[in-house]
Amino acid sequence: MGGARKKRIYYKNRPFTALPAFPRVTIMLERDLTAKIMRYLKAQPALFCWKQAGGQFGCSGLPDIICCLNGRFVAFEVKRPAGGGQSAGKLTKLQEIAIAKIQAAGGVAVMVTSLDEVKEIISKITEEKPDWKRT
Asked: pLDDT (tens digit, 9 = 90+) per residue, 42-87?
């Protein structure tokens, strides 16, 4: 019988022919950035770290990544980087309070939005010479 007819697609009452060519913007998710940072940290010698799990039994406001480096307590609150029309993540009040308490106790606690920020902080801490040494 005849050939197959193409089904016409309409958009706003006009025939739809092709998609406009928009540049594809890739936005890094917070979980992807956290995984990338964890891979880097676990590859560092003399550094112990873990990802703080949230949920029912966790403590609200604690930073995402907790580390011990050269005897220093280090905590990273990971937030989505700005880009692609998106603004960077913001700290909640609980997170601000937790970071302030860690800093008041002599620890290092910061919000990071990239692996480069973490590398910079780790390099500064490894350059420090502790006044005491455990045996």
From this structure: 999 889 999 987 766 777 889 999 999 988 999 999 998 776 556 6
29 close to 78: Cβ distance less than 8 angstroms: no
Q: Walk me through the domains of the chain, giving residue ranges and CATH numbers.
A: 28-127 (3.40.1350.10)
Bridge partners (DSSP) of residue 73 are 68
The answer, yes or no, to whether residue 133 has pLDDT greater than 60, is no
Q: 1-25 burial string, b = 16+ CB within 10 Å, else e?
A: eeeeeeeeeeeeeeeeeeeeeeeee
CB-neighbour burial class of residue 78 (10 A; exposed 0-12, middle 13-18, buried 19+) = buried
